[in-house]
Protein 1
Amino acid sequence: MISRRPMPMLVKWPVAPCVARVLAVALVVVCNSAAQQQVRMVFGAEPARALAEGRVAGCEHFAFLRVKVPEGLAGPATQAAKSWHVSMCVTPDDVAYVLDAENCQVYRIKDGTMRLLAGDGIRGYRDGPADRARFDFGVGAYQDADIKADAQGNIYVSEGLPGRLRRIWCNAAGVWEVETVAGGGSKMPTKGNPIPAREMKVGCTSRFAITPEGAVYFATHSGVYCVREGQGHLVLGVQDFPPEIARRGLHDWHVGGSHITPDGWFYWMPGGGPNMYRLNVNTLKAEKFAGVDKTVQGLDGPTLLESGFHTVFAVYSSDAQVIFTGGGDESILRRIAGGKPAHLQKDGTFQQTTKQLGWGLYSPLCLDHKGRLYTEAGVYAWGGWVVRVYFSTEPNRELSP
Amino acid sequence: MTASVGKLPKLVLLAWMMSAAVVLPGLWVGKAAGQMLSAQAAAEHLQILSHIHSLQPAQSTSGASLPEQHRPEVPNAPAPQAVAAQAARQGQLVQRQPAVAYGAGVFLVAWSDGSRQADQPAADIYCARIDAATGKPLDPQGLCVCAAPDLQEWPAVAFDGKNFLVVWQDFRSGKHYDIYAARVSPQGKVLDPDGLAVSAGPNNEARPAVAFAAGSYTVVWMDARQYPVYGIYCARVSPAGQLLDKEAIALDVEDAAKIAKLRPPAAQWLGEHDYWWNSLASRYLPAAASNGKHCLVVYTKEYPFASSGRPKPTALLFDPTAGTVLAGPVQLSGGAYSLVAVCPTPQGWAAALADHAEGWDLSARLAVVRLDRQLQSADSFAKPHSKEKDNLPVEYLEKTLLPAGCRGLNPGKGALSFWRPAIAWSGDGLLVATDFGWRGRNDPNAISYVIAANKAALVGGDFLWPRSAVLASTDRADQAVANPALAADPEGKALLVYERDEAIDRQLIEALLLSGPNR
């Protein structure tokens, strides 16, 4: 039996004033669906505003030193070691999960201590007890794997090359296990004809999006698919996409970032750029969201459709009103808010520019429920250190842990 | 031998066995130090390889036949033995990270044994003896060295003429790793149950190595006491098990004044615009060897992130009598991200490197860098992107071991993989081994792993064998052979140990006794 870890119903608000706290709780109350509730709890009023409008007001070393060791090295988070190419997610109980593509392992950072969660350190394929399980992350010099969590505390990882989706979960005996959710088969579902997810040839791509309930969305050559409750569904086939999107290819590989909002917008960035697309999985409306159809590094245009990107990481607020991009060949961190991209400047503000002036926060990895951004200190997440970034709308205020 | 051999056409099988019978003795017999493989022998070897490549495909996990899954195997190789096949605990055998040393007629093999479950961690240090004369395992149930709470991992072993010292990294604090050690007699008695603390500060101390020289053990490890970098530290331990250096000796660490100058006033605040640690460098993953008088310590030293260089193997010579660094640190020739093993030689020292050529075309390679007693070396890799030739024994594993159909895909263990080298002086040459692997082109689940060995002389620019001999292999994504370690007795007999992962609940340390010269 699967023992699902309950998600805390109330998140902590370390810096929010009481008024904001009350407003945020009120927002929670009026939300109807569980998904909407989740969003409001994850991004309360002040963190959301700070993310969208604020400046970088603090930055701390969160985890890892720049040493590259086989099988990883546990210990105090800021002294821990991994290899390179990471993905990361943070659950509402403040536990971070880090995917180490080269070591084919997943680490857990809890209460300031890093430990191995899953993967025996050798590339392969094996389900079972998490410390003995095997993964196959990463191809060549690229990172082809992603990690995300659902609201029940299940951790999902993708394996881009073999096209598998795996779940890491804790059983009733407190033993972490790994199981294959999707992929490993030879078929793909067609419209209106779901198939068992384990029979899917491509059960996941490098990047994927997940709903709080654990439904996984991903884009591959033949369309956008959903895996939920053990079944694989075709959401929209490539032939039903607008031609200007379909002809460029949908497949989500390499770096990038995918996300799904509570109102059903699935965002993805095929091949890490140069365009970002979105598909409403309820209405099946698909559109180009950002990009100029060709690689243009760091171009902050007047609109997103006039802005250029080049092989970037992308992380999203729950409602996708705020998106951070960076890493790749662009190096610089950018924020998309209010429908416009802007570069991080040396004073911590974001300004529209075409110049790469600023602060090398590089590769954004994820946002947590407190509106903090986690980045890796190198392009393509090769730097080694993971840092946590704080935002504030208050001038001259420094935030630190 | 795999079942696939049974499917070989008889003629092919016969020719293959005959050819192999020619080459195998050549692997071990009659190659004096410094002597190059003759052209004829090389030709014979190549002929063998062609036969090996004509093997029938192995089976993938899906049962499909995969032409690219050819796995060269050496027939008539001595049969490996499980070091401690009866050491099952709670219904499973999971043995990892083997280390080995020779002393008093036995090889002592140590490993980490048990589970690394995140919320129920229980990995202990075990060891077992192998009779050096017969290769027979003497402790099939294993000897428990340390069963402290939480994780004990990455052991290393040395011999002082009377007893062995096993050292390991220990997570019994539940917060950080410390370095512990315990003596084990050649008769199989653990003299310091659960170990003595060699270094147990409030920071991470990990990946120890150990060597015995000048009357004391030198235990070396990577240490994070100097935030935000790792440095190389050591402490001496007497044969009686006494810690001689309560304050660890810094062997190669970052300049403290430089750190203080760069570090912003608020400890956690990263500074204004850039990472203040960008110009600092860690030293990590040490290996150690002894020539009886001094200890060679080789480790990885990273280039500061602000520079464009890659981490490089670095060597220093430690004088245990004075407690000081005698020579070095000197940078060894290396590619990107080398892992290193070291041993003494009659003329100085040798380091085996499992590393990658620099650049986007990352080519895994096994190499030997030979050093004189003052750490001088003429061995060097060609400069990246130059037309120079490598000037050292080096084998580009993707060219020699990968079946042709697999070339171009990243090998199995990692994209920039951590192949682990091992090295020992075997009386007539330097025996080196590494793990290696690859993935089938058509079936991502068909991942092959091998333990491969080659041999180098003390001089000369090539390995003695044009291609490594494969001594162990697997061909399924749920199995592996990995993490080799080597030790040799004074007669040159070498014991190769490695992990053989057979199933989710069964991973054993296997040992292969390799005859020395003129046997």
Protein 2
Amino acid sequence: MRRRLMAAAVAASGLVAAACGGSTTPTAPAAPITIGVSVSQTGDFSGDGKALIQGYDLWAQDENAKGGLLGHKITMKYVDDASSTQQVVTNYQNLITLDKVALVFGPFSSLLTIPASTVVARYNYAFPEPAGGGPHVFDRGLTNIFFVQPAAVEDNLVSYAQWLLSLPADQRPASAAYATQDDPFTQPQVDKAKSLLEAGGIKTAYYKVYPAETTDFTPIALQVANSKADAVILGTQLPDAVAFAKTFIQQQFNPKTIIETTGPDQGADYSGKLGANTEGIMVPAGWTADATAYGNDKFVSAFIAKYGGTSADISADAAEAYSVGQVVDEAATKAGSIDNAKLITTLHSGTYQTVQGPMSFDATGKPQGGVGVYIEQWQGGKAIFVYPASVAAAKPEYPKNTWK
Amino acid sequence: MTLVLEAAVLGVLTGGVYALMASGLTLIFGVMRIINVGHGALVVLGAYLSFAASRSLGMDPFVTLVITMPVMFVLGLVLQSVFIRPLKTDREALSVLVTYALALGIEGLLGYFFTANYVQLKAWYDTASFPIGDFRVTYVYVFGFLLCLAILGVMFLVLYHTTFGASIRATMLNRTAAQLIGIDVDRVSAVAFGIGMATAAAGGVVFGITTAFNPGSHYDLISRLLTIIVLGGLGSLRGAIVAALIMLVSEDITAVVISPVWASFVFFVILVLVLLFRPQGLYGVRVRERI
Amino acid sequence: MLQAGVLKIAGIIVLFAIALALPAIAPDPATTNIAVFTMMYVGLATAWNIMGGYTGYISLGHAGFFGFGSYTLGLLLAHLGVAAGYTPFLLVPVAGLATAVLALGIGWFALRTRAATFVIVTIAFMFMLQLLAENLVGLTGGGGGLGFPVPPWSGDYFNTPYYYAMLALATLALGISWRIRRSKFGLGLLAIRDDEDKALAVGVPTRAFKLTAFVVSAALVGMIGAVYGYYVTYIYPQFVVDPLIGISMVLMVFLGGLGTLSGPVLGALILEPAQLWLAYNYGASRLYLVLYAAVFLAVILVLPRGIVPSLTVLIERRRMRTPPAAPAPQQAVMP
């Protein structure tokens, strides 16, 4: 195994040298390469880790069917970071210096992306990543990070705020309740939505930030229910998204609208727990199975062919991982090489087409001027875009139906 | 005010679950003088066993206890004889490590068979609730609480009204003296561990219905369980129950009145305050013992 | 006997020389990365042993001090605007001092309890520290974490200064541990471990001694935590006040031999590279936890006193079995 990787490494570096020498794409089949990723296969983020692997694997399969990345057949190498800092740092060092992978992709969550990015930057590797978008990711002064999502994290709920404020005055919610984890992904979105909605005249009936390590969400959910707010905005990951919904059902609390920052976009992992009660719940999303973005229909059918299930079961994480691969493929084609330095320079300009829509990156790697993130809502057992009208597959269901 | 009342009721109901889990833990300590830091993992194991049984046999989670409690009891006998009994020297310290290794092993195996995705035990009535005054109480919490009361009641009956229970209590009081009067302390220890495991299975079901869990959930559980039994007094069943109720009610009221952020902090502050004035815990006995 | 003593000293010198020269012998970052974490645990295990091994008071909450040291250094660097590079290493002792003060407070309280209660109280304090780190958002950044300045060193060189920092701290811990063993203070600690009430009766100032051992142990752990934070460049409450780190250092001491000098070192040298390697290669199958636990259980049940004491006993027994070589009058070998 090691010998094959060594051979790949030698061949890859040979190719890089050749590319630097100014030659264009090689005509003979190029040597296979390995792309390394540290994924949370155990620990807190393991559910998302699994979806990431599905996306990356599907992309590698599609690429290899086309002849590989610039002719290089791809092997993906995954290592588990147990959702821990120590391990993620070790993993990327090992992948780059021991396994000598040609490229690396990012891990799950801003939490792990930040320490990983410093390591990757030391070796001047490009770091396209699907899931690290919290503000601190971009203020470390690094230039090799590329967050492959349609918008910066704090803008995720902007579409939702715009929609609420666009409703006629007699239908608009009078008050809103906010509860969020103190997570670098969920909190910035909720805070921004709160300031937009307050400016628009929607009273804040309740606002609470809770520790990410909380296990019993019932007291907080009870307080939200008690506030009798018309709109409920929750900064959650999957477990708390489900827990809040369940408590609302138990308490028979029926606000006019509910939106959760993650959870409802995780396909079967979410609907499996709530059944018919997913009806009407919203989530900010850049991607749904029905979206008409670049290559999405092929992605969805290939996904179902490889993993089974229905399109409603696909998690957004898988689409984000797939997008990372697409971006790297397009950048490599544009640069004519898979050399990391060239990729970094290339990615800072231009627009790249992905299943999440077109995207481009600013100097720090934040997505810019992008498509933005839309509102997705569960209707009849499927999650579809409902706002803005340009991408909507159906009108938003408002007020949300009562729990079953 | 309603909110505080609601939180208090919630605290009592969840306190019952923790009381059940803690009672097993404190019993194990009392009889064998070992700190079973793997107890959280055992609760999670119980929850997963019920999960598997209800998923493949289509049983209601509470009904699965008919299977899981005996299974866990026997497993307890085995684990105790294989891993705990051989420890002769440095018992307390080594037991921490052995039970921690067991917990890791269980976590690894569960992760292998069930993956690390969060799951939850489902019952067709798990979102049903009934109103009390201004707020609603969920049925599953009440069923869980009643189950805990029942099992704790049985435990008390066995401990105080049977001969075997008397031998357990004797071993808890003074292991050597118990041996001298002819009690088979090894058998008593094994059975006590089995009982502890069985209560963990029951606790696992209630825990699993009310909270989403995965193999890694045992860390949170064990820190709270250990705090509860120390507060109550190591080895005291009564103490474990009282402590669990105090802790959970305070935590839920704090979450609602002050902030969820400080709720778990209150847990530990109470422990620290009580230990300041009573280092042996609420119902513990001050013993002169070798470390 | 003299030969054994000379061999021992020679062995230590050779090991230390290898440790010093490691970055030159094996300069690739993957190895030095493992070396950094391994040396970190050598220091942690030795420091923990000063309390747990010598006094017999098992603290499962030392991870709290580890995290506290980390946050102290991070906050110092942020508020004093210290540039990345070698300077932050100079502030590590300050983190150690702060941790010592914290340990004084916690220890005063925790050491009023004994045995099993003490263990659990240390766990409680550790979780309190974690919660404080998580909730005092204005100070620590809460769940968002705290960043350290990142030195601009190249990928190949980066790990080396951290390795030497960890080596220095580990050597300091070993030096202190060795010195304590040969002092009256150390004798007092061992007396406490054997029978605290008798020690008290005989006149050993048990409370002062226990507290001192606790504080020294905590300060060392705090400094190591500070270097760790600087190395991974970004810390979060749950990963730096991490029960797993706390229990790993305990495991290593028990594996190597509680209360011995070389035991903790051996335990760390075996377990940490194994853990990193197992996680890297088998993490995916989730069975690495089971492997780890199995190795663990095997060692505890077969060698309950740890490797070093068991080996020592084995060697002693063999020596007793071979008859004296020279015809010259030999002293009877005492068991």
